[in-house]
Write a structure and sequence with these properties.
The protein is of the alpha/beta class and 452 residues long. It contains 15 helices and 22 strands. The model has no long low-confidence stretch (mean pLDDT 94).
Length: 452
């Protein structure tokens, strides 16, 4: 980050400064939310969660050399800024800092695929601009401020992924980032347990527009039945999707296999030949999104094609792993109904026997039985040879498969039970797709498969 004066931070977060008389005019060069990661001239921000309060580590931060810290309670020593809420103060500081830069912020959200879209947009725009992006999925009320505080004078574009699991969260992130452009990839069932319905998810996702700059660009997935309803709004959106009625669409699929795809894109009447080195039909959506944004920002079709080709998938997101025995598709980062179907579409592209290992989907609340049963019913329609379901909720996926007439299906209550049987189920040259929510830690299953 670029240095900023303590007094400007105090003003940004509406706090009250306590400590050395000269502190206000000193420069902060680093901001950390971890007491163990204190840099030179660092401000420590102790965040508070449901199960933790980092105020307990203020002493460690001071001992490690922080210049100043935030606190929501008065302290008896040290240099600190008293605020009502350290989390909100963190967001306000990031909002102030973002305003110091002449940089275009592109905010990206969606139920499925927002990390892939963020990475693809950044890869393409990097062909012309100096781009900042979230590291990994730092997309929440901690990660977004952290990303914005990494802005420097060198950056021209910031591609900011924004996630949410409750109403109001995207509105706050939008206020922090003040986006020039907003992207919504889709409205799916992720977090339906907290938001109640797709209509609730739609309402929560469209909060991303709350603090978008006037006249900002809006890019929406036009094949989504809810997003297309914004066609008549004052947002004047650009739609992308496979269907020809979108502003940016797929004109032709020349090739699609386990190695990737070659397509022809129609972008507002301009045709582009694009090669994608990552498998799966689901990759078309982020490519079309990136092409739409890049075209609006003056990139040539050659630059767009080069940016797509340079894209590198994130770890555990349809990561292809080849061993001497089998091929593994590691898609263990997270899970929801839509992403499972997209992953099974990739598995269908394999030439040898196709095996899907499916674990639980988290954060579906009271809808868990229905969602998992639906997954089983839909998965049964895919050209997959064998299914392995593992986990308490996945029992319903197993039942959905059986009720659809699938017989090549196994069920295990937990990973240890499944791991003991993998050697007798998986055969040489199989392609094995592994999918579950992050909390299920199915990367452990991937490691077991590597040993076969």
């Amino acid at each position: 980050m670029e240095p900023i004066k303590v007094k400007d931070i105090v003003r940004a977060c509406g706090g009250e400064l306590f400590g050395e008389s000269s502190l206000a005019d000193k420069y902060i060069k680093d901001i950390s939310t971890s007491s163990g990661q204190i840099g030179e001239n660092c401000l420590f921000i102790p965040l508070v969660g449901d199960k933790y309060d980092a105020h307990d580590f203020i002493g460690d931060a001071v001992e490690n050399g922080c210049m100043c810290f935030l606190s929501h309670v008065k302290q008896d020593k040290g240099n600190y800024i008293l605020v009502e809420d350290t989390g909100r103060a963190y967001e306000n500081i990031a909002e102030y800092y973002r305003g110091l830069f002449d940089v275009k912020v592109i905010a990206v959200t969606g139920s499925v695929g927002k990390t892939t879209a963020k990475e693809m947009i950044a890869s393409v725009l990097s062909q012309k601009y100096n781009v900042l992006k979230n590291i990994g999925n730092f997309n929440n009320e901690v990660g977004v401020p952290k990303t914005l505080l990494n802005l420097t004078k060198m950056h021209e574009i910031a591609v900011i992924e924004m996630g949410m699991n409750s109403f109001g969260e995207l509105s706050r992130l939008s206020k922090t980032a003040r986006p020039d452009m907003c992207v919504i990839m889709n409205i799916g069932d992720a977090h339906i347990g907290r938001l109640g319905s797709r209509e609730g998810i739609f309402k929560a996702k469209t909060e991303i527009f709350d603090y978008m700059k006037e006249g900002g660009g809006v890019f929406l997935y036009g094949d989504d039945d809810m997003l297309v309803s914004l066609n008549e709004s004052d947002l004047n959106p650009v739609f992308f999707g496979e269907s020809s009625y979108n502003h940016v669409s797929v004109k032709q699929i020349k090739r699609m296999d386990i190695e990737g795809s070659e397509i022809v894109v129609n972008a507002n009447g301009e045709e582009m030949d694009i090669k994608i080195d990552v498998p799966g039909r689901h990759m078309l959506q982020p490519v079309l999104c990136a092409a739409a944004i890049a075209q609006s920002m003056g990139l040539s079709k050659e630059q767009i094609a080069a940016g797509v080709l340079n894209y590198e998938p994130s770890k555990m997101r349809n990561e292809i792993i080849k061993t001497d025995y089998i091929t593994i598709i590691n898609d263990c980062y997270n899970s929801c109904e839509d992403s499972i179907m997209a992953g099974l579409d990739i598995l269908e592209l394999a030439e040898e026997r196709k095996v899907a290992i499916l674990g639980d989907i988290r954060e579906v609340g009271e809808h868990g039985q229905r969602v998992h049963y639906n997954v089983g019913q839909k998965a049964a329609q895919k050209k997959v040879d064998l299914f392995i379901c593992c986990g308490e909720l996945s029992r319903h996926t197993y039942q959905g498969l059986l009720d659809s007439g699938r017989m090549q299906v196994y069920y295990f209550e937990d990973k240890p039970a499944m791991h003991r049987e993998l050697n007798g189920i998986i055969e040489q040259d199989d392609t094995v797709y592994v999918k579950a929510s992050r909390g299920c830690a199915f990367e452990e299953t991937v490691e077991e498969l590597k040993k076969l």
